[in-house]
Structure formats: C-alpha cells, structure tokens
C-alpha cells in the first residue's frame, strides 16, 4: 500500500515553491506559513494561502480560496467557490454565500451575511446583509 504524501508543492509564476499541508479537520490545503485553528473545518479542495489566519470554528467549503494575509475570524462561514482576497478581513460569525468574491483589503464586519454571487470591491466595508 502506497502512503499518501503529507504535503503538496505548488510553484508560483515567480518560481517560488509553496508547500501546502492537508488540514486535519476536512483535508483542505493550508500553506505552511498560514495559521489555521485546529477547530476550523477546511473542506477538501479548499485552500489557505501564505500568511493567512483562520480562527476557531470557521467553516471553509469546497473550492474556496483564502488569499495571502487574509483574516477569517471565529465562527465565520465561507461558502463554496468563494475567494477571500489578499489582506481581506471576514468578521466573527460572518457568512459568505457561494461564489462570493471579496476584493483585496475589503472587510466584512462581524455577523454580516453576504448572498451568493456578490462581488465586494477592493477596500470596501460590508456592515449589513447584501
């Protein structure tokens, strides 16, 4: 029986090689410099990029991508095929529906709900349901 490799290496356009490990809770891919709480669920085919931080009890669904230096705070829900942009902040208990695109540096405030297919501009702040 062949043993599964513990990590996946991905080469960026610049030639830098990034190493992603399978998260124990959900089997999603987490880059080695990202910080993901053990209670967070990162579903298979979702991934978390370098420098990103994912707090306790977050759920990240399939095909979602948490970009570099983004922060997903406790209890947030990231729907399938969502992109959380570079340096974006998703507040505590916020919910992002499927296929939402959060621009770089944008902020979704605590408890906000964002419906499916919404595009949030870079640097924008979402305080209420969209």
UniProtKB/TrEMBL annotation:
PROSITE patterns registered for this protein in UniProt: HEXAPEP_TRANSFERASES
Keywords: Repeat, Transferase
UniProt cross-references to InterPro entries, sorted A to Z: Hexapep, Hexapep_transf_CS, Trans_hexapeptide_repeat, Trimer_LpxA-like_sf
Pfam families: Hexapep
Superkingdom per UniProt: Bacteria
Coiled-coil features, chain-numbered ranges: none
GO molecular function: transferase activity
Protein name per UniProt: Transferase
Gene source species: Intrasporangium chromatireducens Q5-1
């Amino acid at each position: 029986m062949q043993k599964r490799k513990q990590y996946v290496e991905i080469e960026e356009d610049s030639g830098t090689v990034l190493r992603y490990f399978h998260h124990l809770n959900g089997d999603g891919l987490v880059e080695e410099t990202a910080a993901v709480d053990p209670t967070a669920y990162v579903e298979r085919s979702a991934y978390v990029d370098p420098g990103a931080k994912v707090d306790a009890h977050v759920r990240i669904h399939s095909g979602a991508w948490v970009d570099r230096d983004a922060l997903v705070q406790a209890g947030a829900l990231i729907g399938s095929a969502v992109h959380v942009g570079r340096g974006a902040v998703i507040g505590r208990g916020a919910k992002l529906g499927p296929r939402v695109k959060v621009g770089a540096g944008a902020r979704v405030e605590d408890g906000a709900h964002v419906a499916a297919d919404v595009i949030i501009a870079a640097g924008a702040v979402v305080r209420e349901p969209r």
